[in-house]
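Listing 4. Sequential folding, example run.
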Amino acid sequence: MNVLHYQVGSPQAAGFVYRHWLAFSIGILLCLMATGKALHHGHNAPPGTLKKLILDGEAGSRGYNSYNRGSMRCAKSNSAPLNLTNMSIGQIQYYQSLPSCSSQKLLAVGHYQIVPETLDIAVRTLKLPPSTRFTPAVQDRIFAFYLAKEKQPAIDRWVRQGQGLYSASYAIAKEWAIFKAPNGRGVYDGNGNNKARISSVKVTLALRKAREDYLHLRNKGWDEDTAYATALGVKKG
């Protein structure tokens, strides 16, 4: 093995130290990025879509791995990283069923902050086995084909038929506490820590975009469900 000897303080020594420091720093950065990708899945939320609005308002940077435990008094939400997307729906439901203030209690989970009762009905409606992983694709499917179609059908009706923009905007405020209803107030304002912060104007813009995108994709020959899901900002899965 060849050993290089540099005089301390020489340009060669300085360059040697810099190159190794740079290589080390890049290695650390790549490791951090890899870890981040495992717990911060690519959100793939197109700008202006309803999916992006929900990400900004409800889920935040953790996106599909976002969660809260239901009580700031007992345990902080998102205080530690959880890889929800690698858990099965059955596991999620178990943790959601735990008593309030349990250290492992989960309440609202994922990109769309799905609460226990909603998840229970969604998996029955969409016929998702308990062993199904709570992946980004599964969360998107629950959003498009249960939350926005079955639970809040006014959203589906607006996107597909162009009917009831006011009702669709109100339905979004009913489903996600962060959004203001058309009257300028949040449906759940004052209930616990809930306080709507995203205006109904932004909600309306996202809904109008969804309707326009749906019509555009249908005119291109896309089938109804694929055009509908894509208009909301998700891929049909």
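-- end of first protein; second protein begins --
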Amino acid sequence: MTTKNKIVFVFDLDDTLYKEIDFLKSAYREISQYISAKSDFESEAIYDKMITSYYNGDNPFQTVLDFVHSEEITISVLLDIYRNHEPNISLNASHQEILTYLKTNVYKIGLITDGRSIQQRSKLKALGLTEYFDDIIISEEFGSEKPNVKNFNFYLDKYGENYKYIYIGDNTKKDFIAPNALNWISICLRDSGENIHKQTFDLEKKLKPLFVINSLKQIPEILKKLNNFNELSL
């Protein structure tokens, strides 16, 4: 039986455990099918308009409404589809492996994510992630969002000070302020070029993560450096 290390390892969700752009594309597909059913336009043409508008930095919802000229379809309806659709997204195999590894070898695994409850819960369900987490903090449910220390103090209050706390995220504007203030170990997953929120590392100290990694596969290496963590193969 493996002895678990005294570590509480907490993840961000979007652009850390999966690419948020995949959720966006899934929502745009759903919206395109909805609009196509109510217009003379093919869903693929609608999707192309939306995704091009997004990458151009425009408003994809307004762009598509201008394209189809429908009084029946409104931005609020499209936003509702975006937020509440069942996303077609998946967890890649290497991320599943690292979660399984942590589940076996650290004391607890948690999640802190900002967003609406139904939207974040639907992502977790589609990704098959719920089973991996001992605790899930979603900002709408919890009543505060990052960088509020309350979201992180939940773990300290529940598990106490006899554990090493680690947080991994991607957003360099807000993800690491609270964990740094609480003396957690902060890890940033570097953007591979697809992140919704672009990163910068020209930051004041309170914003900077302690470690920057290119892949979640590097987590065992970080843990070993921190805590004489037993070397285990993934």
